[in-house]
Amino acid sequence: MNALPSAPDKAAVVEAMFDRIAPRYDRLNRILTLHMDVRWRRASVRALALVGTARVLDIACGTGDFCRELDRMGYDAIGSDFSTGMLAEARTRVPLVRADALALPVADRALDGITCGFALRNFTALEPFLAECARAVRPGGRIALLDVAEPEQRLARAGHAVWFRKVVPFIGGLLSDRAAYRYLPESTAYLPDAVALSGLIRGAGFESIERRTFLFGAAQLFTASRR
Questions:
Q1: Which of 65, 99, 121, 225 sits CB 3.0–4.6 Å from 187 for a disulfide?
Q2: In a domain? residue 197
Q3: Domain with 220 in it: what CATH number?
Q4: 103-118 pLDDT, tens per residue?
């Protein structure tokens, strides 16, 4: 496939891609992030700052990394993903459902929180995704959206470019699927910059928006509360 699929084909292409790479997805994540993705998810769950056994949906749950962390923290967690291959490889005891992130199988205001890790750039559009999050989360509920980013500092950006755009596709091609791991770095083109993304989150009905970065800006976490 081309590195970036055209808009009409994106959902089908991305679904098929994740079905293919699911068996080795966790292993590659740990290698390519030097295991730091585990710490980033843990920080994201802590940043939800919800009370007790709050009901939290992890969207694009993949093999269940976020679900396991939510469960470990005592939340009433659910996972959803569009890829049957990913769900088949999931290692978590929380309930899982195959679902489109733009049409969540939950009632209005049914959730206390939502998490989503490294998936924003895979959706066909961010505005309807954020609107769906706003529909599903109760007033005062929280979202935590974790994804990649481009470092702002010049040396960090240069090092990140070599790793993310050269090393990641090379290792991914050796151990899994070369086309998929060429797409994953290039897909950052789908992400708005931090200011624009904050504006989209606010426009969807969220407030108290905060952005935190990890590894010199190579990853970013947006948290916000439902108005």
A1: 121
A2: yes
A3: 3.40.50.150
A4: 999 999 999 999 999 9
